[in-house]
């Protein structure tokens, strides 16, 4: 584990001097000025779902963010430097998905040592949190009330993740890599239809928090598509982090503002909404630590697949599903048979995830067993070509695998919010980063820290409010300092120690199925990476029905699958993946969504002719 680094005495003096001479007076007060909307469009780079070339690559959901990463690569920074720059820019342009008020998981491949390293920057519950954090009178409080509250806010891990990644593996300082994002926040970005629709979906609760309304509903109205959205408060926050380092969050004035906001949410006078206070303290911030840990690793088709170990369930679940499918030649199956086996493998992996995966500091998580081929083989025999498994499916026992035998009672999969963002980066030296970060729901808790320009997370609602089945141990109940289980799945695939592909996605629990299906589409079905990402998705998470995007819902394959017992519900959009692929001759391919979330942005430093 890595504690948040403290500034040297010289650094503190320099930072204080800089803040006294350069930070505007408005930055000193929580009642900072509202953003200044403008009808003049910002200079946003064009979006493209695929790019091929040299010097490195960046793929994210947003063109301004990808451009920030490319700028760092172009100036000689490495993949880690560019990943942090891209993430910081996403905090400006994708503020409802990520930002300094959230957390995430950072997976990095080092070309020199040919190793994969990971950082767990997940948010943590306050030290005062118990298993009944979201219970009142012995019953779970309404989910929506839990989301929009101080009660749901975990200690942010994103600033510490950036600092730790740069300190260990980067070549640039936090001061340098935050420059593009600070400029973007100050100068503004062009509002698109996705940003406006996400604002509209949150409008009612945003209006109940004056600081949130002042920022995201300028002049009391929804932001206009094509206008320029500026966030001067966030620009000042980034400048404070540049000048003072992440101590500003974990030991300084910025952190005090966060704690104050959580403990006394600034609700509009007269608002009918019930907004509970949280119990986050300065001690919770000051003791936060990024965990450095080994990635999950599994073999698939002669490839090494690396992912994020618990507290995320992404690495173990994808590894198990791939291991289950290892003995099926998916390349030769019909679309119906391929989707059937993929759906069933996902169902099984989620059944085991729910029983076994939680924060390993508090739970005995059998990570090695969950990712073993032996355990997968004991579960794969459940899959039949002419029948469908019934959910909720009982888990197996990875500690004592027995073919086709359950290891406990079935429990349904608990809900997990669907908003997050992901970025993937490669540099000219062959280093790769897959980084998924989040504030959980679209719009997080809905609470902007006054004068700071960013939303607080509602990550603690990823805990189970109560056991899904009282007779079954739930590894994901709240606890003091505990990390809630996540589905974030940043993934890097190697062949003989060299990168093949890296990818990840937002989407709550659908992240696991999105990454899994994209990998299968590319590695087994032979689709180009951009098409593997764009293909219509199915998501089965140990539920009675599998979710289908319209491309599958409206296709003949749905009826073919229903004929053997599958049940489906329609989901208009699942996930929003990005990835990079290593090509011969030092080239990189960056791939992003063609349509989902308005399309993603793939860029390279020097496009090939």
From TrEMBL:
Residues 32-48 have a biased composition (Pro residues). It comes from the Bacteria. SUPFAM superfamilies: N-terminal nucleophile aminohydrolases (Ntn hydrolases). It catalyses: an S-substituted glutathione + H2O = an S-substituted L-cysteinylglycine + L-glutamate; an N-terminal (5-L-glutamyl)-[peptide] + an alpha-amino acid = 5-L-glutamyl amino acid + an N-terminal L-alpha-aminoacyl-[peptide]; glutathione + H2O = L-cysteinylglycine + L-glutamate. Pathway: Sulfur metabolism; glutathione metabolism. The active site is at residue 420. This enzyme consists of two polypeptide chains, which are synthesized in precursor form from a single polypeptide. The keyword Glycoprotein does not apply. NCBIfam families: g_glut_trans. Residues 1-27 form the signal peptide. This is Glutathione hydrolase proenzyme. L-glutamate binds at residues 122, 462, 486-487, 508. Keywords: Acyltransferase, Glutathione biosynthesis, Hydrolase, Signal, Transferase, Zymogen. Residues 28-48, 392-416 are annotated as: Disordered. It comes from Streptomyces rimosus subsp. rimosus (strain ATCC 10970 / DSM 40260 / JCM 4667 / NRRL 2234). Its EC number is 2.3.2.2, 3.4.19.13. One of its GO terms (biological process) is glutathione catabolic process. The gene is ggt. GO terms for molecular function: glutathione hydrolase activity; leukotriene C4 gamma-glutamyl transferase activity. Belongs to the gamma-glutamyltransferase family. Cleaved by autocatalysis into a large and a small subunit.
